[in-house]
Design a protein that fits this description.
Blueprint lengths: L2 H13 L12 E3 L1 H7 L2 E5 L10 H9 L4 H6 L1 E4 L3 H13 L3 E5 L5 H9 L3 E4 L4 H15 L2 E2 L6 H17 L6 E5 L4 H13 L4 E7 L4 H8 L22 H10 L2 E5 L1 H15 L5 H17 L5 E5 L10 H11 L3 E9 L4 H9 L4 E7 L5 E9 L3 H13 L3 E4 L4 H5 L15 E9 L4 H8 L5 E8 L5 E9 L5 H11 L3 E3 L4 H6 L1
Parallel strand pairs: 2-10, 3-4, 3-6, 4-5, 7-8, 7-10, 8-9
Antiparallel strand pairs: 1-2, 11-13, 11-14, 12-13, 12-16, 15-17, 15-18, 16-17
Helix pairs in contact: 1-8, 1-9, 3-5, 3-8, 5-6, 8-9, 9-11, 12-13, 12-14
């Protein structure tokens, strides 16, 4: 079938898809803050507002509504990382048929619980979608159930294509590009089929995670490839092998592709929250992350751009990770390892180089008599500022390493700086609350007696009004009254932790 005939076929399927039995026409909202920051008119197609918080119910229902009464009586089975599963479960509830949902064991509990709440019989199997898919096919053959594919089915693709139909109905002015997340390719295939049939001038840009890029690799090679492993941060797009039909459509209809990393997606989740007050799941924010990167790469200005926010099934437990990594992804935080001489005044000189910049993290533990290694996080506006800060460290005579792209540091080392030290004699440990404002740290250091040595320091900006700081100070016994007076005069809430058994054990 040539592509013109393919587009005509899909156009007919999309126009006749009865998705509104279960789905809503999701809003197309302008993201005011993001538009202003990026110098373009940014529109978000809010599929995260669907009844199951994802676009997937469109394709699932379009497929299942076309099953015969005999097929519905047998029941259906599907494999899913979560969102397709909820779509199938809701559709089955509406159509009155039984469902078996095979989900990877890595699926967030939020999604598996949601499927059970809709009446789906959940079977956990395998580490990825591909493992669950193979098991679901076995169940389908064994129990004579109808398999509902999450993406590689014309009716599923057509159901997702109704999103493209809505975009053109809601925005009748020129659109430069639409950005679509790709897992198995069902969403982008459906959206591209409709847009290219009706408005071929609109660019379709596919976005994938760097660690789950099966479609992009397949396009580059000219045939479908199977990834050995996929990243699980964006579980909704963690697909090892794309569909045969979705590959064909994507290869012929999609104009360009963008790869994004975890930090960029975390930043996109924050962007969406700031404009909508909604929290997207990683897969739901991939389109925004790709759009931001594409704008920067191609110097796009004053255009109308649409990103499909395709899901909001976010595990609450991930929010702390997302919040921390968003700052790095938006180049709002730079992380450095700085080496300073172990001598009185060095720590203060380091703080003077930092100046009035907002400190996001400070970790230090005395190690030997010659030099000290300090982990420093600083709020920045862009990556160029991080380079300028490193230059300032060098000019002051401090050796430094920019860790913004070092995954080991971001994932682990920043939380593990410290340990026991033979050089920490006469150390007293204090836990302070500092007012979270510029200059508070310098006030503390300037007030301290020059004969007292800081031997441990840890601080992490948590976004609250007060920062919580742990400080080790080497003080001779004769000065204990003086340090007590110093703390009282400082006026910061303080608790001494020198006898805390955890401190004695680890530090």
């Amino acid at each position: 079938m040539n592509m013109n005939q393919t587009l005509l076929d899909y156009l007919q399927r999309i126009l006749n898809a009865p998705v509104y039995d279960v789905a809503i026409e999701s809003p197309l909202e302008q993201a005011e803050k993001l538009s202003k920051r990026l110098g373009n008119r940014i529109w978000l197609k809010r599929e995260d507002t669907q009844p199951v918080f994802s676009f997937k119910l469109r394709g699932a229902y379009n497929k299942m509504s076309r099953l015969t009464s005999a097929e519905l009586a047998r029941g259906v089975v599907c494999a899913s990382a979560g969102n397709h599963a909820q779509g199938v479960a809701l559709s089955a509830k509406r159509l009155g048929c039984k469902t078996v949902i095979v989900m990877p064991v890595t699926t967030p509990r939020l999604k598996s619980d949601a499927v059970r709440a809709l009446g789906g019989n959940v079977v956990l199997h395998g580490e990825s979608y591909s493992d669950a898919h193979a098991h679901a096919l076995e169940i389908a053959e064994r129990d004579r159930l109808v398999f509902v594919h999450p993406f590689d089915d014309p009716d599923v693709i057509a159901g997702q294509g109704t999103i493209g139909m809505e975009i053109l109905r809601q925005h009748q002015h020129p659109i430069h590009a639409v950005f679509v997340a790709i897992g198995g390719g069902g969403l982008i295939s459906g959206v591209a089929a409709y847009l290219k049939a009706v408005r071929p001038d609109i660019k379709i840009v596919g976005v994938q995670m760097e660690d789950s890029d099966a479609m992009i690799r397949s396009i580059r090679k000219g045939e479908r490839v199977t990834l050995e492993d996929v990243g699980l941060f964006s579980d909704g797009t963690a697909v090892k092998r794309v569909g045969e039909e979705t590959f064909r459509l994507t290869k012929n209809l999609v104009d360009d592709f963008v790869l994004v990393d975890t930090d960029a997606v975390c930043a996109a989740i924050k962007d969406a929250f700031e404009d909508t007050r909604s929290i997207l799941e990683p897969a739901g924010a991939i389109g925004i992350a790709g759009m931001k990167k594409y704008i920067a790469q191609h110097n796009i200005e004053n255009e109308s751009l649409v990103a499909i926010t395709c899901g909001a099934n976010m595990n609450f437990d991930r929010l702390r990770f997302v919040a921390e990594r968003a700052e790095v992804g938006e180049a709002r935080e730079a992380l450095f390892a700085v080496t300073i001489p172990e001598e009185r005044g060095s720590f203060k000189r380091l703080c003077e180089v930092i100046g009035q910049r907002s400190v996001t993290e400070f970790s230090y533990r005395i190690s030997n008599a010659k030099q000290a290694h300090v982990l420093v996080g600083l709020a920045t506006n862009d990556r160029q500022e991080a380079k300028a800060i490193r230059t300032a460290f060098t000019e002051e005579g401090f050796e430094s390493i920019n860790l913004v792209d070092d995954e080991l540091s971001k994932e682990h080392i920043r939380y593990m700086v410290g340990g026991r030290s033979q050089a920490s004699q006469n150390e007293h440990l204090y836990r302070f609350e500092f007012p979270e404002r510029p200059g508070a740290l310098m006030r503390f250091l300037s007030s301290m007696h020059p004969n007292w040595n800081i031997s441990l320091f840890h601080y992490r900006n948590q976004g609250a009004d007060y920062g919580r700081i742990l400080v080790g100070i080497q003080v001779p016994d004769s000065d204990l009254k003086a340090i007590s007076n110093f703390i009282e005069g400082l006026g910061y809430p303080c608790v001494e932790e020198t006898q805390n058994p955890v401190y004695r054990m680890f530090l």
